[in-house]
Write a structure and sequence with these properties.
The chain is α+β, with helices and mostly antiparallel strands. The protein has 13 helices and nine strands. It has three domains: about 100 residues, Jelly Rolls, CATH 2.60.120.10; about 80 residues; about 110 residues, Homeodomain-like (Arc Repressor Mutant, subunit A). The chain has a five-stranded antiparallel beta sheet, with helices on one face. It has a four-stranded antiparallel beta sheet with strand order 3-8-5-6. Helix 2 packs across helix 5, helix 4 packs antiparallel against helix 5 and helix 10 packs across helix 11. The model has no long low-confidence stretch (mean pLDDT about 90). Keywords: DNA-binding, Transcription, Transcription regulation. This is Transcriptional regulator, AraC family. It comes from Marvinbryantia formatexigens DSM 14469. InterPro entries: Homeodomain-like_sf, HTH_AraC, HTH_AraC-typ_CS, Tscrpt_reg_HTH_AraC_N.
């Protein structure tokens, strides 16, 4: 896997990279180069992989803090944040990453082609850990084959599709397999709901009503709320609250904001309400939680 990462680093640095998003000429494959600490994550409707190639990335999600080193990847999901934080830059003082986008049909077709017992094992998280680790390495090798290998052969849509299928299989058998299947299954019937969820991610600091979101999509409030909860796992206002609290946690941990500053910055009008909501979500008051997080991260 280390060889594949080094190969991609070398090939990517041959490109004329600009800050941010860089198209590669390969459908669905995008390279990212950042020199700033705060970076924007991909905003696409389809499922995707995000592979760290050089540097180290931190994502703050409602599920917790996720750190990714070179050679590690994340899969798109409903609570993927809009922004990430670069913890470590490369020797060239930049951060390199790549996203590979799939269509929902690509993933569903591969899932349907799996042996029944394999699908069941993935969903019940019963795959052997060693096998999952090898599959995660195979994901990176497939990405290298898609990006670097395709330039060494006659460009072919046939070749690209087969490598993508191989990559999806490796993801399904890896550490993110169950999560990947769930995100795709949930996305297929709920495109308009995911548009609303993306809007909330962009505007969670501002006040809004469920009525206004429903009206924009020509739905009744009850139907919109039902569809949103089915696709996202929570109601729109609960989604907003989780985004606010997750961002406040990041501000206090990474930017050393105090409780009042963080609560105001994410849209709270009442600090006492912020503290109650924070304790309910994270299990302890903000100051105590941040102190525990710092101790954990220093280990």
């Amino acid at each position: 896997m280390e060889t594949a990462i080094r190969t991609m680093q070398k090939d990517i640095r041959k490109l004329s990279l600009k800050e941010g998003e860089n198209q590669t000429g390969i459908p669905g494959v995008t390279v990212y180069c950042f020199e700033e600490e705060k970076i924007r994550m991909p905003s696409v409707d389809n499922p995707y992989l995000y592979i760290v190639l050089d540097g180290m990335l931190r994502l703050h999600t409602p599920s917790g803090i996720m750190d990714y080193m070179a050679g590690q990847y994340s899969v798109s999901r409903i609570d993927t944040p809009l922004m990430g934080t670069v913890l470590k830059f490369s020797e060239q003082r930049d951060f390199l990453a790549m996203s590979v986008e799939f269509t929902v049909n690509d993933v569903i077709t591969t899932v349907l082609g799996l042996d029944n017992d394999l699908t069941e094992k993935i969903m019940k998280e019963q795959l052997d850990r060693n096998r999952m680790a090898l599959s995660d390495e195979a994901v990176i090798e497939s990405v290298d084959k898609l990006f670097s290998g395709i330039y060494r052969a006659v460009p072919s849509e046939f070749m690209r599709k087969n490598i993508l299928r191989e990559m999806i299989y490796a993801v399904l058998c890896g550490s993110c397999g169950r999560q990947f299947i769930q995100s795709v299954v949930n996305t297929r019937p709920a495109e308009e709901i995911y548009e609303a969820n993306s809007w909330i991610k962009e505007n969670f600091r501002d006040s809004f009503t469920v009525e206004s979101l429903a009206e924009q999509r020509n739905m009744s409030v009850s139907l919109f709320h039902q569809k949103f909860r089915s696709a996202v796992g929570m109601g729109p206002l609960q989604c907003q609250k989780r985004l606010r609290l997750t961002e406040a946690r990041r501000l206090m941990l990474d930017e050393r904001k105090n409780v009042t500053e963080a609560s105001v910055e994410v849209g709270y009008e009442s600090v006492s309400q912020f503290i109650r909501d924070y304790r309910k979500m994270f299990g302890s008051a903000p100051k105590e939680d941040i102190l525990n997080m710092k101790k954990h991260l220093e280990k």
